[in-house]
Design brief:
alpha+beta, Aldehyde Oxidoreductase, domain 4, flat, 3 domains, 30 strands
C-alpha cells in the first residue's frame, strides 16, 4: 500500500507509519552494498473514526498466539480496550514487508515495533486533544480508549474524526517499563479464541471462490523420476475435468474434489526411475562420506544418529489461487507470505506487485510451511484452466512431498579434570544443522563444527531447527562425563555452568522436580538436561519407567523451567512450553521417516507414530519472569530438553545408553 492510498482504503483518522529504511534495517529487509534498501510498506497502525484500532503486520498466526500478544502490545502502549484492536496479519497487499514468522522472532522484533507504533499513536492523540482543547499536555490523561482533561472525556474515534493525519514513528518514543505493565505480562485470553473453538474461523482448506475448481497433482512414483509419456484420455473424458500437462508437471482440475481424485487415478503415466543414493539405514554413513569442512581431530569420538522426521501439522498445506488481469491472488497457510510472493513472481515471470498472498490464521507450521508448494501448484493450475483453483494436500502428500527435519550424524568427545570440570570438548554435526551447536557450559578448550553434506531427502526448517539434535547429543554426553567422574548429573552441570541464567533454570527445574529427594526404585529412572537457544534458557527433568522384559518406556513426569526475559502472556507462554514438551515426545521416542529406493515407506499416521493421549506424562512448567530483560521468543527453545532428559532417565533406569533419536527405534 502506497502512502497516498492510506485514507482512501482506511478512511479518516490518524495513521502511524514506520520509516521505510528503518524498517528494512530492523527486519532484515533487502540490502545493497551493506545498506538497507527502502521496501514497500503499509500502515502500521490506524485509528479510525469509529474508534477501531487496526494494526498491520507481515507476521502470521500459526497457533502460537501472536495475534493475542501483539494485541497486548497495542493495548499496553495506546491504552485502548482489547476489543477495539483488529490485527491484519500476513497479507502482502496490505501489510508491511516481513521476512517471515520464523526463528522465534515475533516477540523480540515485532512486539517492540508494534509497541512503538502504539506509543506514537498515543502521543498523537494527546497532541490532538491538547490542540483542540487548548490545554497543556500535562493536563491530559489517556485510558480505556479515551482522552480526558478534568471532567471532559472523549473517545479515540471522536477525537480522530475529520482528521487525515500521518506520522512516522520517531526513533525514540516513551515506552512502559516491564515492571509497570498493566496489560502486557498478564494472561489476556486468545482474542479470536471463540471463532477457533466454534469452527467459525476459515482455514485455507475451507475457503471458496465463485466458479472454483478442485485440483489434484500426479506425483512421480519416486523422488527424482521424470515423465516419459502420459495418456490422459480417460481423465479428459470425465465431465468437467481439465488436465494440465506442462513438462514433468501433471494435474487435473474438476468441479468436485472427489471427481478430481478419481480423474488423477485414471491417468496413465510412464516414468524414468533414478537410483536412490541412500536409505534409512545407510544415510548416516552417507552423511560422513559427503561431508564438507575440516575433519574431526579426536580419535575417540562417540557417534549419535538423528532420524529425519515429518512436521505433521494439524492442517496439511492448502492453497486457493485466482488470476485476474495478469495478477494472481493466493490464499494459503504459510509462515512466509512475502517469500511465497517472491516464489510466485519468479515462477510466472511477473512483478511481485502482481502477486498477492493472503494468509488466514493457520493450523500450525512448525517450520514446515516456509515454501509455497501448494500455492505454486494452485496458481499454475489456475492459470492453465482460467478459473480459481483449490489445491488441498492429503496427509500422505504432506508426509511425502513436504520437506523433513534433517537427519544427522553427530560425533562428540570430551575430557574432565578429577573435580568434574570439563577441560576438552569436540563436537561435529553432519547435516543436521548448526543451531544450538555452541555449548552453554564453560569449557576452556572446545571445537564445535557443523559439516554440510548431501541429503537424499528434501529437508528444511523444523521447530528448534538443529538445536533439538545438538542438545540431545550434548546433554546425553554430559551425563556420560558425569558418570565417568562419579558426579550427580545436576551437580556436574552446575559445576560447569557459569552463566547465571542457565544456572537459574537448572536449579528451578531440579527444585520443582524434587531432584535431590528422588528415590531410586527398580525400573524407574530420572534424567535432567539444560540448554540455551534463541534468547531463551531451558532445563528439563524427566521420570520414566522401563519394562525390564520388553524395554518399553513410559514417560511418567516432565518438569520444565523456562526463562525468556520479561513474560508477555503467562498462560500462552505456558501453553507454548508444555506444547513443546508434547511435540518433543514424538521426536524423542518414536518419530522417524523410513525411506528407501526414493520412496517414503511410512507416509500415513497409521504407520508414523506421533504422541497420543496415552503417551502423555504429567507436565509441570516453571516460568522465570525476568522483567529486567527484554522479551525473547518461546516457540522453539522449550522443545530441546525433553529428548536428552528422557534418554538420561532411561540410562538411570536400566544402565543402557541410547545414542540415537528416536530412542525407541
Amino acid at each position: 500500500m502506497k502512502r497516498r492510498d492510506f485514507f482512501a482504503v482506511l478512511g479518516g483518522g490518524i495513521v502511524v507509519l514506520l520509516d521505510d529504511e528503518i524498517y528494512a534495517q530492523e527486519t532484515g529487509g533487502p540490502r545493497r552494498g551493506g545498506e538497507a534498501v527502502p521496501v514497500e510498506i503499509g500502515a502500521w497502525l490506524h485509528i479510525g473514526e469509529t474508534g477501531v484500532v487496526t494494526v498491520f503486520t507481515g507476521k502470521v498466526e500459526v497457533g502460537q498466539n501472536a495475534r493475542t500478544s501483539l494485541t497486548q502490545a497495542v493495548v499496553e502502549e495506546l491504552h485502548a480496550p482489547p476489543a477495539s484492536v483488529q490485527m491484519v496479519m500476513g497479507d502482502t497487499g496490505l501489510t508491511p514487508f516481513d521476512m517471515g514468522t520464523v526463528g522465534s522472532m515475533t516477540t523480540p522484533r515485532m512486539w517492540p515495533q508494534i509497541r512503538r507504533a502504539a506509543a506514537a499513536a498515543r502521543e498523537m492523540l494527546l497532541d490532538l486533544a491538547a490542540r483542540k482543547w487548548s490545554v497543556e499536555r500535562s493536563a491530559l490523561a489517556i485510558a480505556d480508549g479515551k482522552v480526558s482533561s478534568g471532567e471532559r472525556s472523549v473517545g479515540f474515534g471522536e477525537l480522530a474524526r475529520g482528521e487525515k493525519w500521518t506520522r512516522t514513528i520517531p526513533a525514540s518514543v516513551p515506552l512502559a517499563a516491564a515492571a509497570e505493565w498493566k496489560t502486557a505480562g498478564k494472561s489476556l485470553p486468545k482474542v479470536n479464541g471463540r471463532d477457533i473453538v466454534t469452527g467459525a474461523h476459515k482455514y485455507s482448506y475451507d475457503l471458496k471462490r465463485p466458479g472454483m475448481l478442485h485440483a489434484k497433482v500426479l506425483y512421480p512414483p519416486q523422488f527424482g523420476a521424470t515423465l516419459i509419456s502420459l495418456d490422459a484420455s480417460a481423465a479428459e473424458a470425465m465431465p468437467g475435468v481439465k488436465v494440465v500437462h506442462e513438462g514433468n508437471f501433471v494435474a487435473v482440475a474438476a468441479p468436485e474434489a472427489d471427481t478430481a481424485a478419481k480423474a488423477v487415478g485414471v491417468l496413465k503415466a510412464q516414468w524414468k526411475p533414478v537410483t536412490a543414493e541412500a536409505d534409512s539405514h545407510s544415510v548416516f554413513q552417507y552423511f560422513k562420506q559427503t561431508a564438507q569442512g575440516g575433519a574431526a581431530s579426536s580419535p575417540n569420538l562417540t557417534p549419535y544418529t538423528i532420524a529425519y522426521i515429518a512436521h505433521v501439522p494439524l492442517e496439511p498445506r492448502a492453497a486457493l489461487a485466482e488470476w485476474e488481469g495478469g495478477k494472481v491472488t493466493v490464499w494459503t497457510g504459510s509462515q512466509r507470505p512475502f517469500g511465497i510472493r517472491s516464489e510466485l513472481a519468479q515462477a510466472f515471470g511477473i512483478a511481485e506487485s502482481q502477486a498477492r498472498v493472503i494468509v488466514p490464521d493457520t493450523g500450525s507450521g512448525y517450520g514446515g510451511k516456509h515454501n509455497g508448494d501448494a500455492a505454486l501448484e494452485a496458481a499454475r493450475i489456475s492459470r492453465a484452466v482460467g478459473k480459481p483453483v483449490k489445491r488441498n494436500w492429503t496427509r500422505e502428500e504432506e508426509m511425502t512431498w513436504a520437506y523433513f527435519r534433517p537427519g544427522g550424524l553427530i560425533e562428540v568427545a570430551g575430557k574432565t579434570a578429577p573435580d568434574g570440570a570439563i577441560t576438552e570438548w569436540e563436537f561435529h554435526n553432519y547435516n543436521s544443522g548448526g543451531s544450538g551447536l555452541q555449548s552453554p557450559y564453560s569449557i576452556p578448550g572446545k571445537k564445535e563444527q557443523f559439516h554440510q553434506t548431501k541429503s537424499p531427502l528434501r529437508q528444511g526448517s523444523y521447530r528448534g531447527l538443529a538445536a533439538t539434535a545438538n542438545h540431545f547429543v550434548r546433554e546425553s554426553y554430559m551425563d556420560e562425563l558425569a558418570q565417568a567422574v562419579k558426579l550427580d548429573p545436576l551437580e556436574f552441570r552446575l559445576k560447569n555452568a557459569k552463566d547465571e541464567r542457565l544456572r537459574d533454570v537448572i536449579v528451578a527445574a531440579a527444585d520443582k522436580f524434587g531432584w535431590k529427594a528422588r528415590r531410586k526404585t527398580a525400573g524407574r529412572g530420572f534424567g535432567i538436561a539444560a540448554g540455551f537457544e534463541k534468547g531463551g534458557y531451558v532445563a528439563t527433568c524427566a521420570e520414566v519407567s522401563v519394562d525390564p522384559k520388553t524395554g518399553a518406556v513410559k514417560v511418567l513426569r516432565a518438569v520444565v523451567a523456562f526463562e525468556c526475559g520479561a513474560v508477555v502472556n503467562p498462560e500462552h507462554l505456558r501453553n507454548q512450553v508444555e506444547g513443546a514438551i508434547v511435540m518433543g515426545l514424538g521426536g524423542a521416542l518414536f518419530e522417524e521417516i523410513q525411506f528407501g529406493e526414493g520412496k517414503i515407506a511410512n507416509n500415513r499416521l497409521a504407520k508414523y507414530r506421533v504422541p497420543r493421549f496415552a503417551d502423555m506424562p504429567v507436565i509441570e512448567s516453571v516460568l522465570l519472569d525476568r522483567k529486567d530483560l527484554v522479551s525473547a521468543g518461546a516457540g522453539e527453545t522449550p522443545i530441546v530438553g525433553i529428548a536428552p532428559a528422557i534418554g538420561n532417565a532411561i540410562f538411570d533406569a536400566n544402565g543402557k545408553r541410547i545414542r540415537r533419536l528416536p530412542l525407541m527405534a
